[in-house]
Amino acid sequence: MKTIPLILMGCGGVGRQLLQHIVSCRSLHAKLGVHLRVVGVSDSKSLVVASDAKQKELDDNLLTEVCRVKSDGSSLSKVNGVGECQTFSNSESRTEVLGIASLLGKSTGLALVDCSASSETVGVLKQGVDLGCCIVLANKKPLTSTLEDYDKLVSHPRFIRHESTVGAGLPVISSINRMISSGDPIHRIVGSLSGTLGYVMSEVEDGKPLSQVVKSAKSLGYTEPDPRDDLSGMDVARKALILARLLGRRIELSSIRIESLYPEEMGPSKMSVEDFLNGGLVKLDNNIEERVRKASLNGNVLRYVCVIEGTRCEVGIQELTKNSALGRLKGSDNVLEIYTRCYSEQPLVIQGAGAGNDTTAAGVLADILDIQDLFP
User: Fold this and answer.
1) Residue of 141, 208, 239, 330 marked catalytic
2) 141 tagged catalytic
């Protein structure tokens, strides 16, 4: 039986779902000859680790309790009375994680799994690389940090997996890596990489006001608590940067041209969420309605996409033909078109659910299992 020890950083929706997947897949993994040994779980305030990280693990009862506590909105410091574990405060957790990484990294192997949405994990991940750890990411921020940070994280390509940073569980990163490895040059990528914005653009195409669509998306749980986090385009820009860097582009996030769907004067620092939803949002209806009308007259539709081509890397609204894969997009699916030498006339199209805790966690789990050959 091959054992993969791991520490999970981030116990929000994706992190909890990952733990539930690990517990529920025990019999399946046993048939595959693999055991995932969770030795630690952290949130922004606390770290829970096995009493003996070299030999023991957080058992399934404790992992279930972790999920329950976090679902109730409490800190991991509230986890107690189940199994053998130790709890550390946020100020102590970095030292403890690196201690475990030093103990296990080069001897038995250790996966540092980042399902947080924080940029504060970058330092630990970089040191983990030096300690021989494998890095598995759902968090986009480490790979969209400075080029110096990026270069460090990807310095040992076999030891990093980050499929879930773009397209959740869709095979985007692996497909691009296969093309690069095969010598089939990628010269253009166009993608709708936000389930929220995909839903919004396909709904306004049907004649619904933007303000109504955004409110509906929020009530359906498609948007962040502040919809401007989606409407700003920053999430798509981070995904575009990850893809661009994968293609060898030496660029920073600030290099990407980003079209926000709201003006600066409606930003979070100028207007509350309530004011934006109740007064600001409706002021955006006419502009989008007019753009939809003009696109329709040209026989086209509007989609919020990323475009990577040559030195160009931008995200924003584009007019696209109705019969293209992106033009046919409805709802919250992600769609990516990849143009290469082999796929020059008809692009490789990757489409499917590109968001959701369950889908993203499944992608992370697949990435963890994919590194098993690196472990003794």
Assistant:
1) 239
2) no
